[in-house]
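Model: You mentioned two targets. I'll fold them one after the other.
Researcher: Yes, keep them separate.
Model: Target one:
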Amino acid sequence: MSIKTDSLVWETLLAACKMHGDIEIGRLAAKNVMELEPCETGSYISLANICCSTFCSFVLPVHAFV
């Protein structure tokens, strides 16, 4: 049985990626949400948070010394 993947399915996957820090699948989910609902700002913020949580751990110690 197949289901139509609407924005709710992709938003749920994006939230799971945010929780688990999975950037690659998060990008895919965010891309699909942005295509289906381009004015939905939550997907942009969630993707930014996923990327920041992964990359900011390297940036924060550097900023502590500046």
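Model: Target two:
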Amino acid sequence: MTATCLQFLSFVVSALGWVGILIATSTNSWVQTCSHGAASCRRFDELGSYGLWTECFTSFGIYHCKNLADILEIPAYVQISRALMITASILGLPAIFLVLTALPCMHLGSETESVKHKRSLLGAILLLCVALCTAVATIWFPVGVHHEKHLYNFGYSLFAGWIGTALCFFGGAVISCCTGSAADRTENRYYYSSQGSSSTTSPTHAKSVHI
């Protein structure tokens, strides 16, 4: 019962983490930049924002946004962060589906428990890969911005990515642990049941031979 509750809780947590990763991928408020001193930027409201898809800045009191569409001009850390976040977003869909269909309350035809455990373990591995891709992207991007521009603060998109990373990592780790323990219990139950059946049938068989 405890393993079932943990598996269901991990599914909910992982789904929320994947939603956070989708929000981080689709929005552009990753970091706030400042081309001058921090005090000057706050005083004259000249803070800019930099994300995976657009760069926004304030010039003469007017807010401008520029799409980062030219691949040849985009820095390498932006391109790699894009690829990692897109990969994490795509891998999250089959991971959530596998974990959902592997819940104890879900049954697909006449499948055995070992098949459900394998599907749950595969979903957990995919969730860990999602967390790894997002962690690399959300750490590498602000470091790259810090070296190229004047990093002022982190944006809500980056926080959404960090929260999604933590939730997916937690969900994948717990699901993998619950899957292993459930598989061991199933194997032990099958072993003891087979031993019990053999012990009950052996006296009857011996009696028939004696007669």
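Researcher: Noted. Anything on target two?
Model: The chain has one domain: 1-185.
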